[in-house]
Write a sequence for this structure.
């Protein structure tokens, strides 16, 4: 898939024709990584907290994926703070918790500057986010981390399936995006990229099933709930909206029967 146009045509065609079986496979795949992440955190939380408070980074292997958990002030390729980012060239996923502890960490040159009380507060916050989630704030962050896994592991699935052709071509699409100066047009381009629509489709279904199970009476209810969770739906082109609904209808019919 060296040719970019051919890659786009191929991904659009596959996106349109994704089967219930393939969508279900992607949901299971992304859930496996999310569950594996939280299982690892539960088993290693003391080590995770200690390492983050001393080095700001905690790294571990999750199946074939390198996971980097950090409280450092990292930004993505666009210069924005995000809770998670996947690098398809090196199979690495970063989970960034800085924003939630910004009032303690902003402006620090070294973590040793933190007081004992501040470290205890941050450590308790990390534990609550990753393990207990005993309040709405922590639960929302934990849900955001799950959404990162569901979305980014869909990219990882495609990266494994297509190999270097996927990362090279997706990278070239990212370059095109970065050259668009107008922010609204850049965002509009980005959310309409086939592999982004695909990742949003899978992550939205997975979140729905997490929260509401898999039993739905009719397609209208199913569709309305799906659209409530689908990110930046209004910014999709009408053509892509129709493609998503068509794919959703195919999935619902198989799910129902």
């Amino acid at each position: 898939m060296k040719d970019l146009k051919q890659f786009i045509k191929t991904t659009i065609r596959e996106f349109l024709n994704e089967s219930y079986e393939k969508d279900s496979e992607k949901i299971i795949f992304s859930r496996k990584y999310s569950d594996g992440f939280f299982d690892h955190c539960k088993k290693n939380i003391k080590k995770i907290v200690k390492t983050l408070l001393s080095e700001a980074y905690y790294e571990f292997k999750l199946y074939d994926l390198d996971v980097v958990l950090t409280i450092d002030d990292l930004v993505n390729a666009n210069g924005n703070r995000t809770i998670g980012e996947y690098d398809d060239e090196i199979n690495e996923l970063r989970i960034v918790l800085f924003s939630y502890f910004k009032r303690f960490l902003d402006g620090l040159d070294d973590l040793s500057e933190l007081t004992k009380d501040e470290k205890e507060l941050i450590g308790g916050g990390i534990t609550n986010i990753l393990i207990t989630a005993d309040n709405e704030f922590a639960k929302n962050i934990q849900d955001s981390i799950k959404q990162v896994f569901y979305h980014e592991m869909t990219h990882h699935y495609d990266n494994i399936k297509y190999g270097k052709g996927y990362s090279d071509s997706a990278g070239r699409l990212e370059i095109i995006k970065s050259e668009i100066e107008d922010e609204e047009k850049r965002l509009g381009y980005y959310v309409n990229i086939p592999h982004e629509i695909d990742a949003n489709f899978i992550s939205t279904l997975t979140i729905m099933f997490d929260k509401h199970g898999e039993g739905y009476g009719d397609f209208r209810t199913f569709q309305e709930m799906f659209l409530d969770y689908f990110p930046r739906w209004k910014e999709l082109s009408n053509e892509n909206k129709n493609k998503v609904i068509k794919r959703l209808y195919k999935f619902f019919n198989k799910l129902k029967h």
The mean pLDDT is 85. DSSP finds ten helices and four strands in the chain.
